[in-house]
Write a structure and sequence with these properties.
single chain
Length: 90
Amino acid sequence: MVITLNLPFLGAIPYCYFYGFSNRWLLAGLALWLVAGAIGKAMKLPLYKAIEVGEEAQLRALRRTLNTGNVLQAVLNSVAVVLAAVPFVR
């Protein structure tokens, strides 16, 4: 999972090396991808730790919050893909 989520950045290294940083849409998509990952990790990591020791009622609330973090990250990653794809669609 970590490799898959970081694959766009690994692909961006040779892209930026060969084509430079002039493609602003691609850079915006990569930046949003990074922000989405950081927000998702910041939201979900404390929840994973709390789930290990929680009671049933508390676990339900934590799972709802965790699901919200997953959905937010998925939406931001989808927008990032669209931003990065804009220059290739023209």
